[in-house]
Design goal:
22% of the residues lie in helices and 26% in strands. The chain is of the alpha/beta class.
Length: 449
């Protein structure tokens, strides 16, 4: 369905679409790339526009803003709800692992040298302490079962056979203690298994459960609230009569969850300045995310609302395309607001530029390692700003995708990452920084918690 565009009433210069001057500059740049020549930089005839914060600096500002806010205390979280959180206390072993000598294989517990007389009663996992063995005796045993006292080793099922008299023989040499996991082999009670700051993955959850934990102490998820602005937005059906489908209402909550947030509310405000004021001042979320309304038109109410409540503007416009009119504000000592443009890909740009670093820091997640791969084809650049371009990964290269205009989601819906294209563009083969998309880097089942 058609997605929402730039907020109604915004002047032309605040649109994410390239204006005539910029489009001509792209043509000149492309021609220069093809001829190997370099054109002189375009004169800055619009100084107001290019006072925007550089893209990398905007991301660092967002991360730093989260570091300076008062810290929320750690929380005790049921183990089943802890995926994606970060440990706020060390994970110390509550017991020896394993907590008793246990069989590592299905087979026979044997005592002394063979052959062995096999007793009738098998040793099964989950049962109490079995009867001790005597020299020359064996007992069927299951993986994970407790080892009978005086057992010499466990003979694997495939390494033994019984004769016609019912005596067990080994078909291979058997070492003392073979295939027995001794008590405390993995850890002793009180050992530190994982330090503070460890990301809770499925494997961490399994280790915590094995070590006896029902809950873990973790950094709480940052709470996010989404405010969808615009009277022109439909929530169902086909666009009609100048109304368009809202793409950001469905897109933002799961994306914010993928970034580690708990989405506490999604509110549709329309173009009502008073309703926006009430929603912002009444929110207790760590992060408020608004859609559209970040320009200076008569129905763009984000800036006036922030001024009215005395918010501190930390970023007011970013030198990036799409998404130039995004903003970041501190609304309270422990609360921030990220204003996203109304165009969908521009909003995605705002998420990755401002919301992702802020949420990552609030959740105590480490910053991802920056990396770059070569582009399979040249990508034109904006004359002044960074461009974020959807790409798919093919082997060790990134393939730029079409349908990458600010109002389009078709490209990013098929993408693995966004390429960070510097001003002036990137020729074919250029090593270009990539921003992984959450589902491409970790998998939906892991990310969306």
């Amino acid at each position: 369905m058609t997605a929402p565009g730039t907020r109604t009433g915004a002047p032309a210069q605040d649109s994410d679409d390239l204006d005539v001057e910029e489009a001509l500059a792209l043509v000149r740049q492309s021609r220069d790339d093809n001829t190997g020549q370099t054109s002189a930089p375009e004169p800055d005839t619009d100084g107001e526009r290019y006072r925007a914060t550089p893209w990398h600096q905007a991301r660092e500002t967002a991360a730093r803003a989260a570091r300076t806010r008062p810290r929320r205390g750690s929380v005790s979280v049921p183990l089943g709800d802890a995926l994606g959180l970060v440990l706020a206390a060390p994970l110390d072993a509550l017991t020896d692992l394993p907590s008793f000598d246990t069989s590592a294989m299905d087979g026979w517990a044997v005592a002394g040298p063979g052959p062995w007389l096999v007793r009738d009663e098998a040793v099964l996992a989950g049962h109490g302490l079995p009867e001790p063995l005597t020299d020359g005796e064996a007992a069927r045993i299951a993986t994970g079962a407790r080892i009978p006292a005086d057992t010499t080793a466990v003979l694997r099922g495939e390494h033994g056979h019984t004769d016609t008299q019912g005596r067990l023989h080994a078909t291979r040499d058997l070492a003392h203690g073979q295939d027995i996991r001794p008590r405390g082999q993995e850890c002793r009670s009180g050992d530190q298994l994982l330090p503070i700051g460890t990301l809770v993955t499925p494997a961490v959850m399994g280790l915590a459960a094995a070590a006896g934990y029902d809950t873990v102490t973790a950094v709480p998820r940052p709470r996010a609230e989404v405010l969808v602005l615009g009277d022109e937005l439909l929530t169902e059906g086909l666009p009609h009569d100048g109304l368009i489908r809202d793409a950001l209402g469905p897109l933002l909550p799961p994306w914010l969850r993928a970034l580690g947030a708990e989405v506490v509310a999604v509110r549709r405000i329309g173009d009502d300045a008073e309703a926006l004021h009430r929603a912002v001042t009444g929110s207790d979320a760590d992060l408020i995310v608004t859609t559209g309304g970040t320009a200076t038109g008569p129905r763009d109410h984000v800036h006036p609302t922030l001024e009215r409540i005395g918010a501190e503007l930390l970023v007011d416009g970013v030198a990036v395309r799409p998404g130039h009119p995004m903003l970041l504000a501190r609304t309270k000592a422990d609360q921030h607001l990220v204003g996203l443009p109304g165009n969908p890909l521009a909003a995605v740009s705002g998420l990755l530029t401002l919301a992702e670093p802020l949420l990552r820091t609030l959740a105590a997640h480490p910053a991802p390692e920056r990396y770059a791969v070569p582009l399979t084809e040249a990508v034109p650049g904006h004359p002044h700003d960074t461009r974020l371009v959807p790409v798919v990964l093919r082997g060790d290269c990134a393939v730029p995708l079409h349908y990458n205009g600010p109002a389009m989601l078709r490209g990013v819906a098929a993408a693995d990452a966004l390429a960070v294209v510097p001003s002036g563009g990137a020729p074919q083969g250029t090593q270009t920084e990539l921003l992984d998309l959450p589902w491409a880097s970790a998998g939906i089942g892991v990310c969306f918690t």
